[in-house]
């Protein structure tokens, strides 16, 4: 992609395959991407207010996405946050009720595309407000 980068996206997911798939799709849209396996570092090191958009998996070992969602909203209430799952549509819907900006079940390619488009739109809105 030629031109200005749209911002930094953080992907928090314990599955490296899904992180890599999301990274590739987001980078094609002009976004810089950081990946984080939540099992590798403590929450306080993972969550920093430097990201334009945070993508958060719901189903993870030890600390699930709902806990991360509550932590992020408490520390950075204005953080743009998209929650997703793979095959569990009710979890992202519940996350939106808890305060996520959007939620998707990315088990189907069309929903994955919607997630990427939503992240791109949020990044563009953030760029305009700077």
TrEMBL record:
GO biological process, one term: phosphorelay signal transduction system
Keyword Transferase: no
Keywords: Phosphoprotein
Residue positions where 4-aspartylphosphate is found in the record: 57
Segments forming domain Response regulatory: 8-123
The keyword Phosphoprotein is assigned to this record: yes
Signal sequence range: none
PROSITE patterns: RESPONSE_REGULATORY (PS50110)
Xref: PANTHER family: RESPONSE REGULATORY DOMAIN-CONTAINING PROTEIN, STRESS RESPONSE REGULATOR PROTEIN 1
Name of the protein: Response regulator
